[in-house]
Amino acid sequence: MILGMADPRTLTAEGKLSEEFAVPSHVEEVKGQMAAFAVQHRAAGHRVVLITSGGTKVPLESRTVRFLDNFSSGRRGASSAEYFLESGYAVIFLHRHRSLYPFTRLYSGINLLDSLQLESGKGGSVSDQVVVNQQALPNIAKILMRYQAVKKAGLLLPVEFSTLSEYLHLLKAAAQALSPIGSNAMFYLAAAVSDFYIPASDMPEHKIQSSNGPLQISMKMVPKMLSPLVKDWAPQAFVISFKLETDPSILLDRARRALATYRHQAVVANVLDTRRGYVVVVTPDTQAELVLTDEEASRDVEIEDRIVSNLTAAHSQFITQQG
Ligand code: 9Z3
């Protein structure tokens, strides 16, 4: 061990974060914005939810050509943000750059240029005035009204991440920024976060060469941030993590194990293939299955509506119990 450097085997999760993950240059500035947002909205009587959304990116080279990505479209986080806003929460939306975004997600499959038309000018000539083809953008007036009301009231604070390092440092900053509002803060950790990474010291600088033959990589375990978040950074907050599995037979056991390890308030457990229609909200003493019927799914009812109703009610109860 080099003198002055901590032994990575004995470091806490927080110690590993500061030793092994580069701090993004804008973290303090963003932390200040999040703290001001929390205090201002709490003073106005709102609760504040920090939603994480999208997958993290783990570089394999310092000058990154290749990276390991976690699957997540960001739909769960983006649609949940809309339901939290509807329930009167102010929302900090910590999301992966270019993943789905509240309100605009509803038009993500649409080619913008196909939804616009040039207006006819005098005598049938084409003018440079552009009009919207509302049929190409379902419910656009209603959605635009909701989006503009949220924007005007300043109820949505977007913060972006791409890499795992950015995500981890911004999550810590968010937790510390929300700590002053105590139990009025909720953490809704829907982002798909890598369990593995390559420390900067083990990473090749340049693009890995295929001429060197098949690639073998060894990755380290990412420190679990839920532990310091619950214990140290925001100890009074209402904290929800998500558990994603592909094997349904281990899902509930893993969710309960996470609750027992981190001692937070709830785990939303889901299986990749069925996540749009079935989740289980697991707490230390309850287990609620939330299910969409085929008929509900055909009417575009979203399971996030149910998840958010369940959790906002549990949050109210939590605040009352905290006194
Ligand atoms: C989830 O389980 C989310 O529900 C999904 C949402 C990522 C499946 P989409 O963004 O999908 O709507 O496409 N997120 C948590 C995933 C995760 O990485 N959890 C960790 C784990 O399972 C614990 S925090 O070990």
Automatic annotation (TrEMBL):
Family the entry assigns: Belongs to the PPC synthetase family.
PANTHER family: CORNICHON-RELATED
Catalytic activity: (R)-4'-phosphopantothenate + L-cysteine + CTP = N-[(R)-4-phosphopantothenoyl]-L-cysteine + CMP + diphosphate + H(+); (R)-4'-phosphopantothenate + L-cysteine + ATP = N-[(R)-4-phosphopantothenoyl]-L-cysteine + AMP + diphosphate + H(+)
Organism: Oncorhynchus tshawytscha
Entry EC no(s): 6.3.2.51
GO molecular function: phosphopantothenate--cysteine ligase activity
Domain DNA/pantothenate metabolism flavoprotein C-terminal, first and last residues per copy: 47-95, 181-276
Pfam families in the cross-refs: DFP
Listed GO biological process terms: coenzyme A biosynthetic process
InterPro entries associated with the record: CoaB-like_sf, DNA/pantothenate-metab_flavo_C
Protein's UniProt name: Phosphopantothenate--cysteine ligase
Function: Catalyzes the second step in the biosynthesis of coenzyme A from vitamin B5, where cysteine is conjugated to 4'-phosphopantothenate to form 4-phosphopantothenoylcysteine. Has a preference for ATP over CTP as a cosubstrate.
